[in-house]
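Exercise 4. Each item below gives a protein and its sequence. For each, produce the structure-token representation.

Item: Membrane protein YkvI (Halalkalibacter oceani).
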Amino acid sequence: MWANGLKWMFLIIGTMIGAGYASGRELWEFFGAESGLAILLFTILFTICCMVIMTISYTHKSRHYLPVLQLLMGKQLTKLYDFMIMLYLFSTTVIMLAGGGATLEVFQFPYWLGTVILGGFVVLLFVWDTKGVTAMNAILIPILIFCLVGVLIAFQSLQGFPIHLSLDEQSNWPSALTFTALNILPLVAVLAAIGDEMKHKGEIWIASIGSGLALGSVSFLYNESLLQVAGDIMLYEIPLFAILKHYPYYMVLIMTLLLWMAIYTTAAAGVFGLLSRMKDWIKGPAWLLALLLIAIMSPLTTFGFSNLIAILYPLYGVLNLYVFAAILLYPIFHHRSL
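Answer:
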């Protein structure tokens, strides 16, 4: 039970910690000053959402997100959200491939080669089907969190740990709602795909509480560190580098590799969610379907996908709030079935 619970916990964290989170950009956009209460609320809301989604998928032994969506949204809205999730996963994975190419340019790799390398590693994972994804998360995510937390604690020690835990002036608490909501779609897509692999309800508690506490703690430490360099963040596309500016160059290289790992886990989670849905339409080995997806996505990385994302992400944010509310209300209206 514990082994499986931890495996799902790392899968959840791997889905959440993408390039946006690991770079600090996502946290800074949503949190910043007066956000202690917001991060606490995010921790609680995120834990509840994971618990509800995993309980539904465990109860119905789901293999993809469609049955879970139908229970949450009803049949009428499921078609819309089915399309939205696939579009979200597809577009996010394209961005991750592009980000993989851009990140490896630090190591003097051509952009196209960086994209091909990331895509190749994603396809390689699916030689072992879903076990490859969960095994990768079980190895990479602890390393990623350990490195990130290590850098943040080292930075805080240099600053004398100027962390304030006062709940006064916590006006930014609504950010907890939008930050949690914006991460709901990939969470539904990935957690609904493992329903038939869960063996015990205890796995749900371990994965939900463990991932919530881990992400909440890292988010708070990261946000507090970013507040110390708030004046420099506008000079950097990646806020993490504002923290690293006084560190040796090798630390920048290590953290660049860390960002690449975060991109890799998110790309793998995106393909994992898409494959779980595609299996109803297309039969074949998981790695071959993953190769087909990557081949379709790769050309799109050269077309400046940011314009499309500028339109899609606000739309996702609005639509996700409805899913978010449905997840929170599900235990109230269906408590007997949980």
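Check: The radius of gyration is 19 Å.
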